[in-house]
Specification:
Helix content: 10-25%
Radius of gyration: 21 Å
Largest sheet: 4 strands, antiparallel
CATH class: Mainly Beta
CATH architecture: Roll
CATH superfamily: SpoA-like
Distance between the termini: 43 Å
Number of helices: 2
Structural class: alpha+beta
Length: 104
């Protein structure tokens, strides 16, 4: 028997200090979105949009941007420029406890 790959055991649900092998989740794709801001518009305004039209958002310039994973807020950050591409520097990450609280 080859013991070179040790596996973690899973304790009974609810036990403190339970150890889980979550490696099988590492390749699950997630949808990540960075939200700059939101607004509501009427259909008639939507139909009038042309090149150069400006949509005013509810956030002020310089405010943090929201990071959503599968439509759940997980962090906030600020826009940065990296090699001519936009990026996001995280400034605040929602704690695991807060994320679990918002699930139910």
């Amino acid at each position: 028997m080859d013991n070179s790959k040790a596996t973690k055991t899973t304790a009974a649900p609810g036990e403190q200090g339970e150890i889980r092998n979550l490696d099988f989740l590492l390749d699950v794709p997630l949808q990540v979105a960075v939200e700059v801001g939101r607004t509501r518009i009427l259909i008639k305004d939507l139909l009038q949009m042309r090149e150069g039209y400006v949509i005013e958002l509810d956030k002020l310039a310089g405010e943090t941007l929201d990071v959503y994973v599968n439509q759940r807020l997980i962090a906030r950050g600020e826009a940065v420029l990296v090699n001519d591409k936009f990026g996001l520097r995280l400034t605040d990450v929602v704690s695991p406890a807060e994320r679990l609280e918002k699930l139910g």
